[in-house]
């Protein structure tokens, strides 16, 4: 019996292209102006300082920090400071209605139906937890945060490591066998299955289900046997 659903975001609830083609370019484009405008806010100042420290810049000008951060975006560097600053920029973009987070058309209704059946829903994504909350608070289907009981990011561990799924099961106090993990990445599902979770692969069009795959596979949330 499935009592708990744990879902990935990109490629699962939502298109990969929204994050790649909308969110990341928006943060890159707005970052210089954001640093200039908000550079004296204590929160922003803190993360600019952390970025400089991470790069071992002793006394960096604001422009040097901007160049550093844009370089990190281009290099897809995993930096906590960069993530925090990107999150602040995205928050502005959501708040001003520049964009709403993409969710596939059937997703919101299925989340609400599972919730109405008494299932508990959680998110596990490589985007930071604050970014995940923003994402679902400002989705194309409205505020979906009331559907979720909690959020996990890679602070819990890598998504292709079985130990991460054991930690999540412990954190949400659910037997692994009662948790259904949804993802578009087979290696993530392999790791979840190794930890005893149930798994379903999302093969969003134009992808198709692999022949003879180890995981149940569906094209959308309506086909999930939850
Ligand atoms: Mg994914």
TrEMBL record:
Q: Where are the transmembrane segments?
A: none
Q: In which pathway does it act?
A: Amino-acid biosynthesis; L-methionine biosynthesis via salvage pathway; L-methionine from S-methyl-5-thio-alpha-D-ribose 1-phosphate: step 3/6; Amino-acid biosynthesis; L-methionine biosynthesis via salvage pathway; L-methionine from S-methyl-5-thio-alpha-D-ribose 1-phosphate: step 4/6
Q: Where is the signal peptide?
A: none
State the SUPFAM superfamilies in the record: HAD-like
Q: Which Gene3D superfamilies match?
A: 1.10.720.60, HAD superfamily/HAD-like
| Cofactor comment | Binds 1 Mg(2+) ion per subunit.
Which top EC class applies here? hydrolase
Gene Ontology molecular function terms on file: 2,3-diketo-5-methylthiopentyl-1-phosphate enolase activity; 2-hydroxy-3-keto-5-methylthiopentenyl-1-phosphate phosphatase activity; acireductone synthase activity; magnesium ion binding
GO annotations under biological process?
L-methionine salvage from methylthioadenosine
Pfam families with a match to the protein in the record: Hydrolase
Indicate what this protein is called per its UniProt record. Enolase-phosphatase E1
Organism, by scientific name, is: Dokdonella fugitiva
Q: What is the lineage of its organism?
A: Bacteria, Pseudomonadati, Pseudomonadota, Gammaproteobacteria, Lysobacterales
